[in-house]
Amino acid sequence: MATGNYGTIRPADVSVDDVEILYSYTPNRELITSVELQSLDPAEVLIPATTPNNINEVLGGLYTLKLPTSVFGSKGFYSIIIRPKEIRTTIQDCGVLIDNQDVKGLAFDINQIPAELQNRFENGNLVGYRIEYLKEVTGTGQDKIQNLFRIITSNNRALPITQNQGNGSASQAYTFNDNSTSVFCTLTPSSAPSIKPNAVPFIGNPQQNVIITNTFFNPVMLEIEMVEYDDESLAYALYSNQTKSLDDGIYTIYNFGNQIYKQYNLFEVKDQFSGKPLYEVREQKFTIDPTKDFDDITNF
Amino acid sequence: MEYIRKKISLENYTIRSIPKSVLITNSEGKIIIDEDNPKYFYGKVPDYKVDTKGDYILNSFGQKILNTINVDLHITQDIDDMGIFTDRAFVPSDTILPSPPPNFNSFSYGRLAGAPLNFYMTGNNTLSGNTDDEYLNRVKSYRVDDNGNPIYVPYLNTSDDSNNTFNGVIGENVKKITYKIGANPIEVSEYEQNIITEIKSGIEFTTYKKEFIQTIDEYGDNISFYKTDFMSNSGGWNINNVSLNAIIKKEEYLGVVFKPEVKSVVFINRGVADIFERHAILSELKTTNDIDTNRGGKVRI
Question: ipTM beyond 0.90?
Answer without folding.
Answer: no
